[in-house]
Amino acid sequence: MGTRSGDLDPSVVTYMMKKMKLNPDEMENVLNKQSGAYGISMVSVDFRDIENEAASGDKNAILALDVFHKVAAEYIIKCMVAMGGTDVISFTAGVGEKGQDSRREICKYLKIFGVELNEEENQRLKGIEGKISSENSKVEVFVVPTNEELMIAKKTEELV
Q: What CATH number belongs to 86-160?
């Protein structure tokens, strides 16, 4: 998440409240506005900014990206377990569409499931729909651009 905490042991909340002398509103602000990639990187909620700082050697930005890649892969794996496997993985939205490095790093964790990227295609497809897995990959991997604003507008039109 950009600013939210994500998965968290519930005892962390009360520990932090006691240790930092936070009231419930302050704790809610920490969990929803000062955590996630921003809380680790202390740079931004925008992954482009975090990636730029990481490229400059900022250790917090590097850590934020490393955590993001690992957690994203873990969620993909959880979905694969729940479904009994998968034939296709799609990367979409901001980081998924335009984050070639993030896609590569996430897929490294998925190699144990036979996921292999075609790195040339992965680098070429930035905001363009297409297949980025290699011919040898046991799971096909795609980039699928979204247009969330258009979908919201269409749904709003249907309601009106």
A: 3.30.420.40
Task: Note the pLDDT tens digit of each residue in 97-123.
Answer: 899 999 999 999 999 999 999 999 999
Indicate the burial class of 42 (C-beta count within 10 angstroms; 0-12, 13-18, 19 or more): middle
Confidence category of residue 139, pLDDT binned at 50, 70, 90 = very high
Name the token pair of 91.
């990367």
**114 conformational bin, left if phi > 0, alpha if psi -120 to 50, beta if neither:** left
* Residue 61, H or E segment: helix 59-83
Which of 19, 67, 7 minimizes the C-alpha distance to 40?
67
Question: Can you say whether residue 85 is alpha, beta or left, with left for phi > 0 and alpha for psi between -120 and 50 degrees?
Answer: left
In the chain, where the domains are located: 1-66, 86-160
Confidence of residue 2 (pLDDT cuts 50, 70, 90): confident
β-partners of residue 143 are 91, 130
CA atoms of 116 and 132, how far apart (whole Å): 9
